[in-house]
Amino acid sequence: MAYKKYKLSLLIRIVLLFLLLAVLAFVLVILKTNISFLVLIVTPLLALIGIAVNNLFKFTTRRFSEIDSFLESVLYRDFSVLFNENSGPKDVRELHKKFNKVHHTLKNINKEKQKQHLYLQKILELIGTGIMAYNSDTGNILWINDAFKKILNVPSLKNIHFIEKRKPKLYADLFKTNHVDGNTINIETAASKIDVLVSSAQFNMEDGVFQLLVLQNIDDTLNQNENEAWQKLLRVMTHEIMNSIAPISSLAETLQNNIRQSLEDPSTNKLDVHDLDIGIDSIKKRSEGLMKFAKTYRGLNKINHLQVEKVSIEQLFHSLENLLGPSLQSKSIKLNFTLDGTEPYIEIDRHLIEQVLINLVLNSVEASEKRRDAEVTVSYEKRIDGHPTIKVTDNGKGIDDEITDKVFVPFFTTKKKGSGIGLSLCKQIMLLHKGKIKIVSKTNRGTVVSLLFPK
C-alpha cells in the first residue's frame, strides 16, 4: 500500500511538472508579442516549475539516500543504526521498518556466528589433539590451540620458522614432509620422546594458501596396546608351557609303568636300564629348561597389584645406597643421589619401585663400567607439569636409536646372557602405578631413564 502511494505521488509530481511546462509553452506562444505581460506571467510560472523540479528531485533522491545509508551500514556491519519509523512519508517509514528488520536479522546472525565461533574455539582448546593453521608462504600462524603447544613443549608460537631455528629436525618432520595420508613421527622433548600421529590439509582463503596441521599424541595409546599385546603374549606362553609339560608327564608315566611291570614279573618284563636312563635324562633336561623358562616368565606374570604407601624419597635413596654402594665402589663406579627437596614423600609401592631402581642402576652400571670416569646418578624432582619424577642417569655407551623403542618389548635383549625381562617388568610396574617410563639416550654420551608418576 505504501509503495502504491509512492507511485501515485511520483506520478502526480510528474504530471504537475508537465502541466506547468505546457502552460509555459502556451503562454510563450500566445503572448509572445506582449513582452511586458509575458514577463509578468512567465516569471511566477518559472518559479513554480523550479519548485516542482526541486520537489521531484528531493522526493526521488531521498529514497535513494535512505537505501544508500542502509547499504553502507550493512557493508561496515554497523547494526547499531536505527532508522526512524515514526515520522516522515509513509513509504519512507515502511522502508525504515524493513531496514530495521534486516538489521535485526543480520545482528542475530552475527551473534549466532560469534557464539558458534566461541563454542568451536572452546572445543578445540579443550580437546587433547593439537591443531594449527598457518600461512604456507609466510609461515605466520593463523590459529593454534594449547594442545599443539603442549605437544611441542613451547609456551607460544607466532611463526613456524621459530621451530626451524630451535629444532631443525622437528621442523623438517612437521612442515617439510607431506602428511596428507597421515604419518607417525617421534618428537623429542626436554624430558622424553613421544610418538605423534601427524595429518595435514591445505585450504585457500582470500589472503593466501594455508595449511592445517593436526597432531595427536598416540604414545599413551601405544603403551596401552603394547600392554594388552604383552598380556596376550603371556597367555599364549602359558599355553605353550602346558603343552611342553604334557609329553614330560606322558614319558614319566610310561617309564613308571615299565618299572612296575618289571617289579611284578621280573622274568617276563625285563627292565632296560639303558632306556630308563635315556628317558630320565630327557625328563631332567626338559624340566631344567622349563624351570629356567618358568622363572623368567614368573617375573613378568606375578606383578598384578600394588601395596601403595607414603614413602620418604630420602629413605628410599638411602636404602639403595646401602644395597648397591659397595658393589659399585668395587667397580670404581661413582653412585650419586640428588633430591630437589620440594616434596620429600611420594605414594608408591616401595618394594616394586625399589626393584625397578635396582634394575635400572644395574643396567647403567653395565653400560658405564668400561669408562674410567663412570658415574650413575639417581635423582628426584617435581616437573613443571606436576609429575613427580625419579631419574637414573649414566654416562655410559648409550642405546642405539634403532632399538630404543624396542627395549620394553618382553624378551627383547641385546645381551648375550640377558633374558629381555628387566625393562619389561619395570614398565609393567610403572603402568600399574598409572605412570610412565621414558628413555632418552645418546650413543657414547649416556642414558637418562625417567620414571614419571601421576600428579
The figure for the number of domains is 4
Overall outline: elongated
Structural class: alpha+beta
* Percentage of residues assigned to helices: 55-70%
- Secondary-structure arrangement, i.e. CATH architecture of the largest domain: 2-Layer Sandwich
Strand elements, count: 12
Widest sheet: strand ordering: 2-1-5-4-3
Mean pLDDT: 76
* CATH fold-level label of the largest domain: Heat Shock Protein 90
Name of the CATH class of the largest domain:
Alpha Beta
Order of helices and strands: HHHEEHHHEEEHHEHEEHEEHHEE
Summarize the structure.
This protein has twelve helices and twelve strands.
Explain what the structure shows.
This protein has 455 residues and is an alpha+beta fold. It folds into 4 domains: 108 residues, no CATH class; 90 residues, PAS domain (Beta-Lactamase), CATH 3.30.450; 80 residues; 144 residues, Histidine kinase-like ATPase, C-terminal domain (Heat Shock Protein 90). Strands 2-1-5-4-3 form a 5-stranded antiparallel β-sheet. α2 runs parallel beside α3.
How are the SSEs placed, and which strands pair?
Blueprint: H1 2-30, H2 35-75, H3 90-126, E1 130-135, E2 141-144, H4 146-152, H5 161-166, H6 168-175, E3 183-188, E4 193-205, E5 208-217, H7 219-264, H8 273-301, E6 309-312, H9 313-330, E7 334-339, E8 345-348, H10 350-368, E9 375-382, E10 388-394, H11 401-404, H12 422-432, E11 436-442, E12 446-452
